[in-house]
């Protein structure tokens, strides 16, 4: 079994049932164990020994039975145990969203604000007179009826075109985002688990877009020696491999995806912890893990330039702060005229959310 460090556990929330309390911890463990039910239950049992998570009336066995009855797990005939279901996958995404973006206020479904006005979903407080071509859905009937009453009186009420008031609405843009996640071996090296926070942020980000910005599109790809797309449902199971960092392959795939998207606003978010160390040339991998390789870097900068020409900004979230990496990230970002954030693991979600929501943050170095 792998080793995880849990600093403390609190049972202060008495409003939750024993199942809900265990479920909160269990979903966290599933993220750490890449969706491995057996390993997560083993860790839950160990935590129960140390922190007394269960009671004499409700044990781990009862919890497993409830997971089955509520549809969170199903038999895995190939392994002779259980596997998590799509219901659990969605629960993990929602809990990640609550954990990372928990202070978000509920808002109407829509997209991202621009400085233009037009047909949309959020209304302004100000109104204006009706003009030919305005949609009837934009009429402020309360103000319009009030105008007619003032002009004609209640007994001779008549609503004319001159009485109509229009309430402006925000024009909302649609955005296509590609989220790139580095799964090179360094994401679990040096005694720090970087892939689990990256997975949590990706799950929260995907749930945010699905629920708050349903008109947006989100594609997720991972890159190691090569790059490939994954489905949102695959995120809990994501693991690092014995890979180098082929940033070029990731950028090429991201550009290919965005070329097919019809939305006018496109962007790439890249979560990584290191420098590019790999290229694929035909059937051969060109690798160099020692310092910044000019050949690899030049290819990355070429793609940054191409994205700039296509008006695709790249935002890099560097979850490692090694000084020698800053020069590469700065040059890459300046070439694309994108943004870069050096974020600690516990700040990664806040950085991504703030940048995605506002689109107005300055590049930070």
The CATH C-level class name of the largest domain: Alpha Beta
| Number of DSSP helical runs | 10
Shape descriptor reads flat
* Widest β-sheet, arrangement of strands: 8-7-6-9-12-13
Estimated helix fraction: 25-40%
The rounded distance between the terminal residues' Cα atoms is: 38 Å
**Low-pLDDT residue intervals, each spanning 5 or more residues:** 103-123, 360-365
Number of strands: 13
Largest beta-sheet characterization: 6 strands, mixed
By CATH, the topology of the largest domain is Rossmann fold
Per CATH, the superfamily of the largest domain is von Willebrand factor, type A domain
Mean pLDDT: 83
Quaternary organization: single chain
State the domain count.
Answer: 3
Give me the secondary-structure topology.
Elements: H1 18-32, H2 37-51, H3 60-69, E1 73-76, E2 81-84, H4 86-100, E3 112-117, E4 123-129, H5 141-152, E5 165-173, E6 175-182, H6 195-212, E7 217-223, E8 227-230, H7 247-259, E9 265-272, E10 278-281, E11 284-287, H8 294-309, E12 314-318, H9 323-336, E13 339-342, H10 348-358
Helix pairs in contact: 1-2, 1-4, 4-6, 6-10, 7-8, 8-9
Q: What would you say this structure looks like, in words?
A:
Helix 6 runs parallel beside helix 10 and helix 7 (247-259) runs parallel beside helix 8 (294-309). The relative contact order is 0.09. This protein has helices spanning 18-32, 37-51, 60-69, 86-100, 141-152, 195-212, 247-259, 294-309, 323-336, 348-358; strands spanning 73-76, 81-84, 112-117, 123-129, 165-173, 175-182, 217-223, 227-230, 265-272, 278-281, 284-287, 314-318, 339-342. The chain is built from ten helices and 13 strands. It has three domains: 18-84; 119-171, no CATH class; 174-358, 3-Layer(aba) Sandwich (Rossmann fold), CATH 3.40.50. Strand 10 (278-281) and strand 11 (284-287) form a beta hairpin. The protein has 365 residues and is an alpha/beta fold. Strands 8-7-6-9-12-13 form a six-stranded mixed sheet, sandwiched between helices. It has a three-stranded antiparallel sheet with strand order 3-5-4. The chain has a two-stranded antiparallel ribbon with strand order 1-2.
